[in-house]
Structures are given as structure tokens and as C-alpha cells.
Specification:
Rossmann fold; about 20% strand; 11-stranded mixed sheet; 2 domains
Length: about 550
């Protein structure tokens, strides 16, 4: 393909590889066995691979149904490639070059028996605010969105009763707030019957991690079962059995397979729908469900119950405001506005690294709760420096529209809280890295933070550190949240961290855990295996004790 990286991001062009297309086609056709005439649509057909896969699988499985294939794509050149491929393969397809989000609304209801599609994944940042607002209004979308969402909204009206959807999309819809638009359709208009979180298997050449949803066009029933299988790399797992990955996905049992030299853990269960579309979905697994029930009974509060979790500052012009080489800058701002900045590189479990080389140009009054600029007439060198970047900074129209000065950062947070002790953790990391910071440094937007002033008691803060950094905490995250990126990296976002459990702080085990964590955090030496093992044991013990009715600290 000749598309540049920028074009791919802008238009969401990630064509489906043949093996994955075949798997999706097999899952769709498995629910159409009784049909004698099957009309199949791909509303974002690209080079036609998914439609060709439908034809290929139907032919190989000797299906007697007469199949009609229809493909749409916004890109005329892609349609031309698809048409050429179809002619070479001797496959008849009805091709359309145009915007399906417009054309689809003019099609008669119930026009298709199946829709198989890999719609473009383009986020709001690439769509542009105006286009995103128009799509939201036209298709009844809310919150953060990507271009997949309006395609999904159209699906129920296009399908006949009990028609089948085979959707390949980002697995973000399972666990993020932004996925609520897709979850809403699957909560209200379609019945999911098969779900595959393909994780970091690299079956798909895209920055996003893929998932497959197979759903029927019928009113959803809470009693209906949806198979849910996840597949993620784990280099430490031991492969067993002769399954290939695609067979393992449908085997309905847990397995460990090798795929293209990588060890993949496949976990099989059923889908647990959330009570509301705004909440994440998760894989229900017998062993995990039993453990979660025990954890729920032993939980005193959650992180979200006891503290406000904030993201770090957002400058939206990091090259201007953030640097580790201010001394080399000609128009160097005054020292009083160059403050130490904690980034993800500085955060280790338990502690912040001593040396904070990066500093941020922070022009706010640190004694104020609300965003209040310092008197910039007292900092002429800073204003001279900012003027050298005026064109870029004034280009951030949203800053000006919000009533800010053109030289402000976008999210300064609560300036007065920076000086208080705080728990800091990176947005993305393989394992938990929750640290206590007492330096008064500012936290960058690649991290989150919790002020001890909000918690109100440092002993609860020590319990939070212990649980988050423990083996138990990591298991809880994977069972309840499970939002992983490539190479096992986890997302530690507010909506996930807020769910982490806390044991009753009034129990003996919790008090011992507080002391062990305090010792570990304040020690001058790096924690050893014995100390970490002790914290793990005490976390387990704290959740094993019954919750006291008062939940008091004593």
C-alpha cells in the first residue's frame, strides 16, 4: 500500500489480512446455515477481502445458498482494486464508491442477511471537531467517538430479523468510556453471540488492538449467552496441545498456543454485560468470578470512594512548555516559573526517582486552588520566550475560546495541591507503578495523581499503595478492567483505578500492612524480594479478614 502513516490515521485504512478475514467469515456464516438466499454487505469494503472471504468459505463448506455480495467504500481507488481482484477471482460483487454513512440511510430496512465489516477507526482528533459534532448529531452519538460508531449505529436497520453482524473493530469499545456508543447498540438493538478480544496477537496491522463481535439482529435478552474469548501474549506461559490460534479461539476452553513464534494465552468464558452501557464489559470466567465474589465481600471501600483521581497537566504544546534543557534556551524564562515535573520515566513502584531533570514552565499562582496566572509583568524573560512561540500558541484557538490567555497551558489542575504529598502513577505501564511523592513536583499528563489532602489520612494512602502495587491488585485489574495494549502494557486510567479495592483499615492485618508499606517507602535502600513478598502476604491477609462495621482506623 502507498498510504502514508498520516493518511492511515486520518482515514482509518487498515485492510483485513486474509486469515483473519476467513475467521470472521466462518463465524458469520455459522449463523446462516439455514438460509437459501444470503445477501451480504460490507459498508467499508476496502480492497474487498472480507467479501471474498465470505465467498471462499461458502464455497469450501459447500453451502448451497445463493450469495449476493455488496461492497461500499469512500475511496474510489480502493473500490477499483477490489473490482479488479473480483474479476480475477471470477466473483460477482455489486460495488459502490461513495460515503456509506450517507448512502446507508437511504437503503430499505432489512436489506441484508449479513453485514461483515472492518469499518475505519478514526478518532475525534483526526476527524476534526466539526465533523465529529455533525456525526454525533446525525447518528445520536455522545461523548468521545471514532468513525466506527456511526457505522455500528446503522447496522440494526440494515439487517433482516435475525440477520448477522460480523464486526472487526478496536477492542477499546469493551472497556473504555469512549466505547459506550457501541455498547449501547449491543445493549439495545443487537444480541451479541460471539466475542473475541484478540489483544496483542498482532493478527491485524494497526495501532489499535482488535476485537471481533458476532451479533444477531434481535431484541437482546439478558439470559442469552455470548461466548467471550480473549487472546494475549505471555512469554512466560508454557504452550500445551496442538491447537493453532484460530482453532483455539473457538475451542471453548483455556489454552496456550504458539502463533508466529509468540506464546499466546487463550482464555474462554462468557460475556458479562454491564448494568449500563457506560460501564465496561468483562469476560466471565469461573475461577475469576469466584475470586471476585470473595473480593467483593472483603472490600471496605474502593479507590474512587476515598479519593479523587486526577490526570496530570496538559499543555497541548509540550515542546514550548516542557524541557530538560532550559539552560540551552536563548530566551530562558525566570527560574521561579520553571518547576520540577514528574513524568512516567520518574515513577517506580513505591517511590519517585530522586532526580527530576525535566521542568515545566508553569505560570500559575501555587497558593490558589483555582487557575490563577501570576503577574506576568514580573517575568519579562518568560514573556519574551513565549512571544518567540506566539504563532504556535495562538493557533490553539480552543484555549482562547475558553477565555484563557494565549500563552496558558490547557489543564493546570489545582495549583495549591502540588505541594501536598501525593500518589503518582503512569497512565501506561506493564505492571503497577504507584509511588508516593513528597517533593511538591508537578505531575505531567502521562501520569495520574491522588492528593493525600483529598484522602484525609496517610494510612489509607499507604493501603492504596500496597494494594495497587501488589500481586492481588494486578489480578483484580486484569479480572475487572483488562485494558491491555501491545506487549502486555496496561492502561491505568481513572475509570479503572477507581475500582481497585481497599481492605478494612481497622483490622490488625491492615495496620500491619500500613506499617510495612511505610517502612518500604521511607527506606533509603531499594525494596528487596523479601520485603515485596511480605507486602503481598499482608495484602492477602488484609482481604481475608472480615470487614468491620465501623471501618475505623485505630
Amino acid at each position: 500500500m502507498s498510504d502514508t502513516v498520516a493518511e492511515v490515521k486520518r482515514h482509518g485504512k487498515h485492510y483485513t489480512p486474509p486469515d483473519l478475514a476467513t475467521f470472521l467469515a466462518e463465524r458469520v456464516l455459522a449463523h446462516l446455515r439455514s438460509k437459501t438466499i444470503i445477501r451480504v454487505l460490507d459498508p467499508a469494503c476496502g480492497d474487498g477481502e472480507l467479501l471474498f472471504a465470505i465467498h471462499r468459505v461458502a464455497t469450501e463448506q459447500l453451502m448451497q445458498a445463493r450469495i449476493t455480495l455488496v461492497g461500499y467504500d469512500l475511496d474510489p481507488s480502493a473500490v477499483a482494486v477490489a473490482r479488479s481482484r473480483a474479476e480475477a477471482l471470477g466473483i460477482t460483487v455489486e460495488w459502490h464508491a461513495g460515503d456509506f454513512l450517507q448512502a446507508g440511510r437511504d437503503l430499505a430496512d432489512g436489506s441484508f442477511d449479513a453485514v461483515i465489516t472492518n469499518p475505519p477507526y478514526v478518532r475525534t482528533q483526526q476527524l476534526g471537531q466539526a465533523a465529529a459534532q455533525t456525526l454525533a448529531a446525525d447518528f445520536g452519538l455522545s461523548g468521545r467517538m471514532d468513525l466506527t460508531h456511526p457505522f455500528v449505529v446503522l447496522l440494526p436497520s440494515l439487517l433482516r430479523s435475525d440477520g448477522v453482524v460480523g464486526l472487526l473493530c478496536s477492542n477499546r469499545f469493551l472497556t473504555t468510556k469512549a466505547g459506550a456508543n457501541v455498547r449501547t447498540v449491543l445493549h439495545t438493538s443487537l444480541q451479541p453471540v460471539e466475542l473475541y478480544d484478540l489483544g496483542d496477537t498482532k493478527l491485524f496491522d494497526a495501532a489499535v488492538l482488535p476485537a471481533i463481535v458476532v451479533a444477531l439482529n434481535r431484541p437482546p435478552s439478558p439470559a442469552a449467552e455470548c461466548i467471550f474469548t480473549s487472546a494475549y501474549e505471555d512469554a512466560q506461559a508454557a504452550p500445551a496441545g496442538e491447537f493453532g490460534l484460530y482453532k483455539a479461539l473457538v475451542a471453548r476452553c483455556d489454552s496456550v498456543v504458539v502463533h508466529q513464534g509468540r506464546t499466546i494465552v487463550v482464555k474462554s468464558g462468557t460475556l458479562t454485560l454491564s448494568a449500563a452501557p457506560s460501564d465496561p464489559w468483562r469476560l466471565s470466567h469461573e475461577a475469576g468470578d469466584d475470586w471476585l465474589r470473595r473480593m467483593a465481600a472483603a472490600t471496605w471501600r474502593t479507590f474512587g470512594d476515598v479519593a479523587k483521581i486526577r490526570v496530570g497537566i496538559k499543555s497541548t504544546a509540550d515542546a514550548v512548555f516542557i524541557s530538560d534543557a532550559w539552560d540551552e534556551i536563548r530566551h530562558r524564562p525566570e527560574d521561579g516559573l520553571l518547576l520540577p515535573l514528574i513524568t512516567h520515566d520518574n515513577v517506580t513502584p513505591w517511590r519517585i526517582s530522586d532526580r527530576l531533570a525535566t521542568r515545566v514552565l508553569y505560570t500559575y499562582d501555587l497558593t490558589k486552588d483555582r487557575r490563577t496566572l501570576v503577574d506576568m509583568t514580573q517575568f519579562p524573560r518568560t514573556m519574551s520566550y513565549l512571544e518567540t512561540h506566539a504563532e504556535r500558541l495562538k493557533g490553539r484557538q480552543y484555549v482562547i475560546d475558553a477565555g484563557r490567555k494565549w500563552y496558558e497551558i490547557w489543564v493546570p489542575q489545582k495549583p495549591s495541591l502540588w505541594s501536598a504529598p501525593k500518589i503518582v502513577f503512569p497512565d501506561i505501564s506493564v505492571n503497577a507503578r504507584f509511588a508516593l511523592d513528597q517533593s511538591g513536583a508537578i505531575v505531567n499528563g502521562d501520569c495520574y495523581w491522588i492528593s493525600l489532602d483529598d484522602i484525609g489520612d496517610e494510612r489509607v494512602a499507604y493501603l492504596m499503595l500496597a494494594v495497587a502495587n501488589s500481586t492481588l491488585g494486578l489480578r483484580f485489574y486484569d479480572e475487572v478492567c483488562g485494558n491491555k495494549l501491545y506487549s502486555g502494557r496496561r492502561r491505568w486510567m481513572t475509570q479503572y483505578v477507581s475500582k481497585l479495592p481497599l481492605p478494612d483499615p481497622g483490622t490488625v492485618a491492615s495496620q500491619e500492612l500500613v506499617q510495612a508499606t511505610r517502612n518500604l517507602v521511607t527506606s533509603a535502600s531499594e525494596p528487596g524480594a523479601e520485603e515485596l513478598s511480605l507486602v503481598d502476604r499482608l495484602v492477602e491477609a488484609a482481604f481475608a479478614e472480615p470487614v468491620l462495621t465501623s471501618g475505623s482506623l485505630c
